[in-house]
Amino acid sequence: MHAVGLAQSGRAPEGLAIIEPYRALIEREGNAEQRGGYWADIAYVLNVLRRLRDTAHALEQSIGIAKQLGDLAELAMQTSNLATVKGNLGQLGEALVLAQRALALKTELGDIDGPEGAVIRAYVGLYCGLVGHYGEALEHLDAAIEVLKRDRQTTLHAVACNHKAQFLIDLGQFARARQTLDYEAPAVEAVRARGAHIAARIDRALGHPAPERLELALAALARADDPHVRMHVMLEGAEHSDPAAAMQGCEEVLKMARQLEFGGVAAKARWLHAHAQSRAGQVNEAAAAMRELVAEMARVPPVDLYRGEAWWLAAQVFDAAGDSAQALLALAQGTDWIRCVALPNVPEEFRDSFLSRNPANRALLAAADRRLSH
After folding, report:
1. Count of CB atoms within 10 A of residue 5's CB?
2. Are residues 171 and 123 in the same domain?
3. 172, 194, 274, 315: which has the fewest Cβ within 10 Å?
């Protein structure tokens, strides 16, 4: 408890120094409850330190002991925590399975209609959306938003609304996305910054870039210690900068993401860096980097980069390098993801806007139809 308190007070290194030496003793002499408590607490400290792989290991130990004890409440909580860690590591498929498992456990306990259950539903919605299951994503997020608003959970409500707006942008529903961001301003600066970031993304999708929104987000982050949101905001700025500035921004984020073990963010930084390299005329280096990224897509996809846009960027990079075979393959893979993976999971009312108003979908499908039909 002392170690956790230190971590909560911004002194996580001291907390780890206190709790870590007890590992051998706990494993040798502790009963199941003590071992489970130890692993849960050290996982908390490690997560604050952004040692995500070590956090995942500790949570897996805690989960195993909770199963052994038949403690469904602890099992649900730690499974949900592991889902978040796996998501941050960029392992989205595993994150979704774990979040769904946590939700099933909370449902079994009859504890789904409060803030804890709503948060788990929001995570299920987030990971559903990131893998293209948009109908399920909106269903879970709407349910979570309703509970969090009802219970006056201002910050958590804003987080869930940010997630929903992010997916409405993918679906080409820009007016709905903007309405979703019309929530009571939370006290947490990073959540407000993420909202400003998503609002900037809406403006850009509508053809009205608003750099001042990203400036607002960065100003909020200057008062908040949230490197995750900061990296996403920095990449948004880099993606739409001149090539040299974009490469520099992506390299800075890549360094941060690797240090913090945010695998999906690191992948996004590399993806955007390759595109910036190509725009800078370094077409062969960009194509070589993109070949590596395409090979790694299934294992660690770029997070917060719409999957159709990722394939469209890849096709452009390969085209610029004169690799028409790889460009055609990227177009085919992108088309397959849009039409065969995502579209069947898009609510009927949004299918037309998903295909025609999402800028990446519109560009990629037009290029694919033009080139793959010949």
Report:
1. 11
2. yes
3. 172
- pTM for the structure as a whole: 0.92
Q: How far apart are CA 339 and CA 1, in angstroms?
A: 51
Domain holding 9, by residue range, is: 1-70
Written as six digits, the tokens of 192 are 């407000």
**Does residue 56 sit in the same domain as residue 124?**
no
Residue pLDDT, tens place only, 122-167: 999 999 999 999 999 999 999 999 999 999 999 999 999 999 999 9
Closest listed residue to residue 236, CA positions, set 159, 311, 304: 304
What does the DSSP assignment read for 253-319?
Answer: HHHHHHHHT-HHHHHHHHHHHHHHHHHTT-HHHHHHHHHHHHHHTTTSPPTTS-HHHHHHHHHHHHH
- CB neighbour list of residue 163: distance below 8 Å, 6 or more residues apart: 122, 125, 126, 129, 137, 141
In this structure, are residues 18 and 3 in contact, taking their beta carbons and an 8 Å threshold?
yes
- Tell which of 272, 298, 324 closes a domain: 298
User: Which residue pairs from 319-327 have beta carbons closer than 8 angstroms and sit at least 24 positions apart in sequence?
Assistant: 320/278, 320/283, 320/286, 320/287, 321/278, 321/283, 321/284, 321/286, 321/287, 322/283, 323/287, 326/287, 326/290, 326/291, 326/294
Q: Within this chain, do residues 275 and 313 fall inside the same structural domain, yes or no?
A: no
Q: Do 175 and 236 fall into the same domain?
A: no
